[in-house]
Amino acid sequence: MADTAALYGLVGAIGGALLGAGAVVAAPLLQNRGAARTRHWGLAEAEVNRLIKIRSSTRAVLYLQSQTVDALAAGREVAPAEFAAAMSSALSVLREAADDALADGLVFPQSPSTRPDPSMRRERRRRGRSMPPPYNVTSPIVMCLQRLGDDIRSALDSPVGEVSSASITSLRGQVTEAERLREELISLLLDRMERARNCRA
């Protein structure tokens, strides 16, 4: 009986030691896994936020431009200084969003000579395996919206009600083209957001 009790005691001691050793080894591994998961989720969340900013900033610029073109077509007065200030502010937000999106492989040229920033490749290397590698998407929408804004400002230099029908037709064509580019971009952004959300899960 005493031998059995001693045997049970020995087995218990060995089991306790093994459990303790396992906990010492497993705890850091579990902590590292949890930290990696948290970092992974944070990166995915940041990407979704950047994509949403692109979507909302292109919408804000295009809405302002289309409303102004409609006003010109209807012969309503538009204050050039107010339009210029609102356009400058909206485009500034859009350019910032476009610059931020480089980290996700999204390239929005802001001039004909724009080239992808090397920081995009550095950001990918920094991420390592935390997320699937982003694929490059290049969209001319920023340049399209900038050009449209410039052409609207030129039209606003004309006296009220004297913007030519040819100018209105041209501006409406540019709005239609910008809307088409934005629809294409939104489709790509939704796909990217879905991938990022899947990475968070």
Automatic annotation (TrEMBL):
Organism name: Streptomyces lavenduligriseus
Annotated region described as Disordered, given as residue ranges: 106-134
Transmembrane segments: 6-30
Protein known as: Protein kilB
Keywords assigned: Membrane, Transmembrane, Transmembrane helix
